[in-house]
From TrEMBL:
It holds the Pfam family SSB. It comes from Iocasia fonsfrigidae. This is Single-stranded DNA-binding protein. GO terms for molecular function: single-stranded DNA binding. Residues 81-90 have a biased composition (Acidic residues). InterPro entries: NA-bd_OB-fold, Primosome_PriB/ssb. Keywords: DNA-binding. The keyword DNA-binding applies.
Amino acid sequence: MTILEKSYKCLVRIVTWRKLAETVSHHLGKGRLVAVEGSLQISKSEKDGRTYTNPQVIANEVRFLDWPKDSKKGNGQSAGYDDDNFDVPF
């Protein structure tokens, strides 16, 4: 197996504060698609002789790019929004 065939995962911690933290805690869940704008900070730590790189983003803004699965109504539309006329604001 070559290095190009290996699959790598990079998990990045997102740090939010104040009202943004409240909003994210209520609406963000595993599998949700979001765009995060902020500053990247990278720290390193050691454990059991191994060095780990720990990236995190201090978020200024978080945009939700999809609809939660449980917000769909029986008629196929999202609660309070018309899916056909939705534009992502960026």
